[in-house]
């Protein structure tokens, strides 16, 4: 296969830019670690903390160029979902939270948390299936289950778009698929016996609130959240700081028991204490990694371009929208093969200087969180579509893995490089 001239390994200039970007990132990271180590010599609980930053408008990339907060592209036989802005809060929602209220979902018809799709049972409504038709009937019954699973995944990813969206984009198409499958079941039986009547009445499904049997395993509650960590008294966080079980290292705190800060509530606010347990960490060989394998060296202002991202050991099936209260809310979880469940983020920001680190609070020009239900121990690719950057200068485009609640996944050893990559692109 002929490789694109823009592929990373074919461009010495691109390699140099990436090397400089990564070295700079690691240097800043090292500086942060050093400063943290020095400042930890004092008791941080008596330190005066600055007030929380002011509410800022969501990134210009918080919605797609067609006005949707979630878009899908069909890649390699599956839908890839991009959550623009990572569920950022609007200024009004942010101000409401800072005033002691809660962030209101901009779409009041969004599916409530824990909702799932409930469909009429088909197998129990069938007459005795003749042996000659059983194999085909069983295949279609399994297909009905697959259709429900796919619809539930889309409900989790996009249910916040509102009741009309759920009906038109999820429940309606699901009913059409079920109607066709039920017709095939009736035809298979009708070839060798009397055709069953009325199966089409089982095609329509409904939204069931709080009926998801897996909800308790995936989302920690707000209080006493078990191993998945709620916002207060989160299960594994049982030691109220001090040196208990601190390996003789003089540990200052292991939970929020003695913190003077108010508990973090899953929304994007600083000066809070997060009590959600760290969760599960995999073996070193199973820890996630990723790489930006293709990117342009330069683009024109507002010119669309692509980033090719390759991930390994990251199952991209968990995304709790930060703007909906899913930030730092869920403990890190591994699948049955010991791989992290989560997603990855892509952001591009303009650098005012290449000699000084940028302001951390500035919103990027582009930001999406990507999950598609794929990913595993073998590398696979995802294409990120960037609609264009409006400002000329040097853009820093970064990609990093996140668990279900957006934290960079933990590694078994301290000397492993986390799942992050950075490139620089000149915008003319």
UniProtKB/TrEMBL annotation:
Q: Which domain of life is it from?
A: Bacteria
**Residue spans with biased composition (Gly residues)?**
218-246
- Region Disordered, annotated ranges: 216-246
Q: Which residues form a coiled coil?
A: 134-161
Entry keywords, A to Z: Coiled coil
Q: What is the protein name stated in its UniProt record? A: Pecanex-like protein 1
